[in-house]
Amino acid sequence: MAIVKLIPTKMTQTNKGFAAPTATVVGADGMEIDYTGKDDKIMLTIGVADAIITMGNGIQGVADLTVPAGQSVVLESGAFKNVTGAHKGTVYIRGGATTTVTAIELP
Fold first, then answer.
1. Beta partners for residue 104, in sequence order
2. Residue 10 CA: distances (Å) to CA of 27, 79, 97
3. Of 21, 22, 28, 72, which has the fewest Cβ atoms less than 10 A away?
């Protein structure tokens, strides 16, 4: 299997309805979420099963974060974004076979 790659859906307007994107399954090899945009405005929603957001490889990356199913989170990118290596520019997530993630970049 391969790592699942997810690009956050950009919400372009406020005060207007927005159809949330379909959740994406993390996969056996994990998921990379593109964090090269407005990374302080990306909201992740975890569905079905808990997700483990791995610490980034920058100076602020000190611990993994487990987010329970059914919760949303906005990450401090300095702690979770990878700045070098194979996952550069992304946040890497691990989970079970049923873990799903939705990523929305707020305006």
1. 9, 43
2. 23, 22, 26
3. 22
Q: What is the largest CA-CA distance in the chain?
A: 40
Q: Specify the pTM.
A: 0.93
Secondary element (H or E) of residue 79: helix 77-80
pLDDT, tens digit, for every residue of 5-32?
999 999 988 999 889 899 999 999 999 9
Of 11, 80, 23, 66, whose CA–CA distance to 48 is shortest? 23
β-pairing verdict for 65-67 and 51-53: antiparallel
Query: Got the DSSP string for 24-56?
Result: EE--TT-EEEE-SS-GGGEEEEEESS-EEEPPP
